[in-house]
Amino acid sequence: MSITFRIDEFYIGCFPKRYQIPFSHSPMKIYAVNIKIILTILFVARSLVCMSQLENFQNTALVIEKVYLHTDLDYYLPGDTLWFKAYLIDASEMMLTDHSRNLHVEIISPEAVITDSRIVRIMNGLGNGDFILSENLKTGTYYLRAYTNYMRNFGEQLFFTREIRIAGNPDSAGMESYSTQPGSNTLHLQFFPEGGSLVDEVTSVVGFKVTDGQGYGCDITGVVYSGPGDSVTTFKSNHNGMGKFTLTPQKGWEYYAVVKDSNGNSL
User: Fold this and answer.
1) Quick check: 185 and 213 in contact, CB under 8 A?
2) What is the pLDDT of residues 139-167, one digit of tens each?
């Protein structure tokens, strides 16, 4: 006696029965469907990875870094130490960011030459550093520039730039120097016009430094007068004997200063 089995359907055994897919008599169709399912799974997995990478790229691209430097002074002399504090900010949230770790800081001369540079470590969006200014710097307007490597991807328009004024050595053009001798104390007063000289009808910054006979800075106050004798502006030195004032010279006019020491004595 012989027993005959008739197979009407094949099933993929890895699925629960309610999800099993019926097939006709040929087993080749089962293998074809298995390959299709594997390829579909691989395609979906690859798509998810690509989407995740794209999302990470988009999140990175949305970060717009901004740098700000705060300096201890606006006006320096050769040999001074320029101290600064750096802030790295996410411009979209206006908050400190750790997006970059290193900050490039440069001093650029009036001739657009980098005279000194530093790499400052950024922690929690903050950093600090200093420059010891060369004794050979000339009078002029210099620039303090700061940026991260990430910011370089978007061009120099995002770099931080700030003007700093440096009054050069005694041989620098545009410097006016005066000595006074009240009693036995000699005071040496130097003026440093912005850009080396004053221009008629243009408001300029005039820096000054006063030292005693031993080269130490001292306190003074002063008043600038025009040729006709009108008071134009006043000035006062800080503890280092330095200071600045603004002046808009008029064409054909001469100006002079009346200076007093810390005791109120005219010099």
Assistant:
1) yes
2) 788 999 999 999 998 888 889 999 988 87
- What is the model's pTM? 0.49
Strand 75-76 relative to strand 160-166: parallel, antiparallel, unpaired?
parallel
pLDDT of residue 176: 52
- Residue 192 · residue 206 · CB < 8 Å: yes
CA distance 12 to 147: 61
Query: Binning pLDDT at 50, 70 and 90, where does residue 63 land?
Result: confident
Rounded distance between C-alpha atoms, residue 72 and residue 242, angstroms? 13
Q: How far apart are CA 218 and CA 265, in angstroms?
A: 13
Residue-wise pLDDT for 36-45, tens only, equals 677 777 767 7
Q: What is the pLDDT of residues 229-266, one digit of tens each?
A: 889 999 998 767 888 888 888 888 888 888 888 777 77
DSSP code per residue over the chain = ---------B--TTS-GGG---B-S-THHHHHHHHHHHHHHHHHHHHHHHHHHHHHHHHHHT--EEEEEEES-SEE-TT-EEEEEEEEEETTTTEE--S-SEEEEEEE-TTS-EEEEEEEE-BTTEEEEEEE--TTPPSEEEEEEEE-TTGGGG-GGGSEEEEEEE---TTSTT-EEEEE-STT--EEEEEEEGGGS--TT--EEEEEEEE-TTS-B--EEEEEEETTS-EEEEEE--TTSEEEEEE-PPTT--EEEEEEETTS-B-
Q: CA angle, corner 159, sides to 156 and 165, nearest 5?
A: 115
Average pLDDT, the chain: 77
